[in-house]
Amino acid sequence: MRHVIALDVGGTGMKAALVGADGTLLHEARRATDRERGPEAVVETILAFAAELRAYGEEHFGEAAVAAGVAVPGIIDAERGIAVYAANLGWRDLPLRDLLGERLGSIPVALGHDVRTGGLAEGRGGAGRGTDRFLFLALGTGIAGAIGIDGVIEAGAHGNAGEIGHVVVRPDGPECGCGQRGCLETLASAAAVSRAWAAACGDPAQDAADCARAVEAGDPAALRVWADAVDALAAGLLTAITLLDPRTLIIGGGLAEAGETLFVPLRAAVEERVTFQKLPHIVPAALGDTAGCLGAGLLAWDLLATEVSV
Known about the structure:
41% helix
């Protein structure tokens, strides 16, 4: 059975799958990234994991994978297949596509940005299915987005499109790692909410999920922290809506796991801000943590289709 290898590499763990031509997950597996062992060890872990998946496919499906797709965090050069920079993994200018291709018997390999890859899956088979224009946002440690147009993700001229987390929404706000102040992700990411709630309640072990539960219980301090984050997020989304005019706005990542505790006030806050803009449907992501794998599989199948058509 024809299939591809799909790898979604995160800062702490990797999710992988063998994906059929119809998008079916034929086999799923997970591994720790083991980043504490250093960047070279992480690369070897990825290569070994991919080789295991190739062997599994040969044994259980009668043939080796015909291509591979890999989604990674940080800055990438998809055209050259290079992981340019990933702070969490310690990478700089890593020729990941070539390394995987060599380990996997010279099959074609597609490299993608993790959030844009997840957005690709959500657009084609998740919450954005059938939508011609959408914006996918992942609210996690940071905030990043994927701009979807007719089933394709717009990467931008330099591969940096969708970095909405670095839109400044509070010029006098906290300093961001990018060098600016008041970036959206310093105020409305899951990490930002965790920091704010831990400070407000005096317990450094508390995080965004704890804050959401406290909001549901009516805790006044939690309500203030949550309202500040929602207000900042709505301001950032208004900028995105004004520039991109999406039909659907898909929100995923850790903060979105709060469900209607997030979506009810967020929809209201965005609606209050729009003037001439058309209000998009604001919906939760549908694929959860399988989006990256499914998207990596789509990258691999798209690459094969491109090679055949050339």
